[in-house]
Structure formats: structure tokens, C-alpha cells
Specification:
The protein is built from 7 helices and 13 strands. By secondary structure, the protein is of the alpha/beta class.
Length: 248
């Protein structure tokens, strides 16, 4: 059954016109009135909706059932990373959403080549959020990860320093020799009670020594994924895959 994200809060009995993108997709699929589709609003569960009317560019539906289905990872993983160059960030957002990321914080770091501000930054955020919506439609997720507005690493770490709940864990992907294997950290007793974990990763070349020091000073632990040097987007996704498959 085709699945579509709908920003309108959904409820049984609600009648609504589908968002323009979803309406076009329904028409491309040559669906007809009385056929059923799946909708989700990102707040949990999914809904069945019956097509009532189709116009030239609009599709009207009525919500008929709710299914409290969740497909979230057992551990909420929040990814903060230096924005990769070119189109790699688009790919990373899509794959991270499929893997179950809870949120993504794009960062401007010392070694990052991309600099975003103002209207350009807002457009990028909207673009990446739309990619997350589409990835949820494809992967079956009913909760949409939030793609935060672009920040500098300094701004992000300042916010983190002022907000450190006891049930959160924080790691930084590091190339330093004294970094602990991520797998060993997951097995440590001190991390069994974590309900959320924050992963900080740099752009190509990683974070600078000064940036790492600032993160370590507010409670991040340096971890490694192994002996090989991975691309920025590969490292972030590898860590995410390991963490979202881990049990609490």
C-alpha cells in the first residue's frame, strides 16, 4: 500500500486534500476513488485513508483507521556532523533516516568546506527535511527525524554544555590513538542505562585538535571505528548502524 507523509495532524474521520507531492504520486500510480493509501504525520503510528475524489491536481481522502505501529530503533541516536561537500549530505540524510536516526544536526567546522547562513541555510534545512520525509515513506518509519538548522560547532557545544541529562551518552568519532573502540563502549556497564546517545563527527579530515578538546571537556568520549580511515559520511553512518542495532 503506498505510504505518504502528511504534515497535517491526522485523526480518524478527518477529510483532507493530500499535499501536492503526495497527490501527484497518487495520480502517477493511477489510483482511483475508493482505493486505500497509508498516511503518517510523524507523531506515531500510521493511518489508512480512502481516496474520495481526484481532480486535475488534487486528491481528497478520508482517514478511516489508525494502526499504532512503530519501527524505531531501541536507542535514540542523535547525529551531529560537519556538513560533507557536494551532494553527500543529501545521501547521508536519506541513509541515516533509513537506519533510524532520531535527529541530525548539520555543523560548520574548521575543516568543513561548506559555509551556510541566512536564506541559503534555511533552504538547505528545508531540502534536507524533505529528504527525511521521503526516506520515512520508503523505509516504513512513522516518526520523522528532525533536521536542525545549521550551526557552528562552537554554538552546538555551548548548548550541549548547558544541557546534560543523566540518561544521555555522548561520543566523538576520533582519529586519536587513545580513542576507545565503539563496540567496547557499547558493552560498558556505564552505558547500559542510556536512553539517547549523541554522536559528534567532523567533515573530511575530522575535527581539529582544538575542537575535539572542547567536546571532550563537556563530557564527550573519543571512540574509533577501527584502523581504516573512512570518509566523513561513511563514518557517521557506520557509527549510526552500530548504535541503532544495539539494545538498551
Amino acid at each position: 500500500m503506498p505510504r505518504f507523509y502528511c504534515s497535517t495532524p491526522l485523526s480518524i474521520g478527518l477529510q483532507l486534500d493530500l499535499p501536492s507531492g503526495a497527490a501527484r504520486h497518487v495520480q502517477v500510480l493511477r489510483m482511483q476513488p475508493e482505493m486505500t493509501i497509508t498516511l503518517f504525520d510523524g507523531q506515531g503510528g500510521e493511518y489508512e485513508a480512502v481516496i474520495e475524489r481526484m481532480g486535475k491536481s488534487s486528491v481528497a481522502v478520508q482517514v478511516t483507521k489508525h494502526h499504532p505501529i512503530e519501527r524505531e530503533a531501541p536507542l535514540a541516536v542523535h547525529l551531529a556532523l560537519g556538513v560533507p561537500a557536494n551532494e553527500r549530505m543529501d545521501w547521508l540524510v536519506e541513509k541515516a533516516t533509513e537506519l533510524g536516526v532520531a535527529s541530525i544536526q548539520p555543523l560548520m567546522t574548521e575543516r568543513g568546506v561548506l559555509r551556510l547562513a541566512g536564506e541559503r541555510a534555511e533552504k538547505k534545512q528545508t531540502h534536507w527535511q524533505a529528504i527525511a520525509h521521503a526516506a520515512c515513506e520508503q523505509s516504513g518509519r512513522n516518526r520523522v527525524p528532525q533536521i536542525h538548522a545549521v550551526k557552528t560547532l562552537t554554538e552546538y557545544l555551548a548548548e550541549q554544555a548547558n544541557d546534560a541529562p543523566a540518561n544521555e551518552c555522548r561520543v566523538i568519532l576520533s582519529l586519536q590513538d587513545n580513542s576507545k573502540p565503539l563496540a567496547a563502549l557499547l558493552q560498558a556497564t556505564s552505558h547500559k542505562g542510556c536512553e539517547a546517545i549523541y554522536v559528534l563527527s567532523g567533515a573530511e579530515g575530522g575535527l581539529s585538535a582544538a575542537e575535539e578538546s572542547k567536546a571532550l571537556a563537556i563530557g564527550y568520549q573519543a571512540v574509533t571505528l577501527g584502523n581504516r580511515v573512512l570518509r566523513a559520511e561513511t563514518a557517521a553512518l557506520a557509527a549510526l548502524a552500530a548504535l541503532t542495532s544495539a539494545q538498551k
